[in-house]
Design a protein that fits this description.
Blueprint (H helix, E strand, L loop, with lengths): L1 H39 L1 H9 L3 E6 L5 H12 L4 E7 L1 H12 L3 H5 L7 E6 L6 H12 L4 E5 L2 H42 L2 H9 L4 H33 L13 H32 L8
Antiparallel strand pairs: 1-3, 1-4, 2-3
């Protein structure tokens, strides 16, 4: 009975070690996949941020409804305009009441606010140089009394968008190195539990290649399983928060997801194969006495 119990315990121990490796690979590749999706959508993210930059065109008090409609139509036809929203005096007052938490019109006895048009720009035009030109252009409209936009925020956004790409690349390389080390150590531990099996195979005359083959094959299989699990988790996450990620990540762009999924599979196989290959080689070269340390 004891003789039968030992192999079963060893099998369970080996299975647990590989299961731990698979879970580690899945979690690591899941995080790498998320980072990959963000990186491949970096340009889209930059456009999304820039397209939220806009002007507020404050209209003259005496402007007629027809003139306002003409101005809106003219702006909508402009190549640099993404969207136009007209805000009348009443709507502007309601927004300010909400921000202040009190009815300022009751205190003043009248509504001092003017009607305005919020203009969102196309991303290519949301640069400091072009914004100055557009500001002058908007002031030429006879219906417009004043033009405003947040100059400092525009400069900060443009500076940060440029830095974002560099930061993402650096962070990706650093994260990949850390995760590779983590998975490598996990696989080494799983191989360590089978070091005596490797030594026994050497004693009966097995070649290095013959010894490595089952370990590498099994490790690659678990690496693929881990990568597939990571991809499924990534898909579930992206589609669960598709609405919240609108404008930042395009969940309908299957080309991006396909590239990330293939990259995850390649990394899963590559990391599993290389870690197992070198770990098995290490134990092949150990002398019997060194197996106990």
């Amino acid at each position: 009975m004891a003789g039968k119990g030992q192999p079963q315990k060893l099998k369970r121990r080996i299975f647990k070690s590989y299961l731990t490796s698979t879970i580690s690979i899945a979690m690591v590749l899941f995080l790498i996949g998320m980072l990959g999706v963000v990186m491949m959508n970096a340009e889209r993210l930059a456009r999304y941020v820039r397209e939220n930059i806009g002007f507020t065109l404050v209209l003259k008090d005496e402007v007629q409804a027809k003139d306002i409609a003409d101005l809106q139509n003219s702006l909508k036809l402009s190549p640099f305009v993404k969207s136009v929203e007209y805000i009348d005096k009443e709507k502007a007052a309601e927004r300010l009441k909400k921000d202040l938490g009190e009815d300022f019109t009751g205190f003043l006895g009248y509504n001092p606010l003017l009607s305005s048009i919020d203009v969102k720009l196309m991303a290519d035009y949301a640069t400091p140089e072009k914004l100055i030109i557009l500001e002058k252009k908007f002031m030429e409209y006879p219906q417009v009394k004043e033009v405003s936009y947040q100059h400092d925020i525009v400069n900060i956004i443009n500076d940060n968008v440029q830095k974002l790409g560099i930061i993402l690349i650096f962070f990706s390389v650093l994260l990949l190195f850390i995760f590779f080390s983590l998975i490598n150590n996990t696989i080494r531990i799983s191989i360590y539990s089978q070091r005596f099996i490797i030594n026994t195979m050497l004693l009966v005359g097995a070649t290095d290649r013959f010894i490595r083959a089952p370990f590498v094959k099994r490790s690659i299989t678990y690496g693929i399983i881990g990568a597939l699990a990571a991809n499924v988790l990534l898909l579930i996450l992206m589609f669960s928060y598709a609405q919240e990620l609108t404008g930042i990540v395009d969940v309908d762009d299957f080309k991006i997801f396909g590239m990330v999924f293939v990259a995850d599979l390649i990394l899963g196989v590559l990391i599993s194969w290389s870690s197992t290959y070198f770990a098995v080689n290490k134990f092949i070269r150990l002398k019997f006495d060194e197996l106990f340390y």
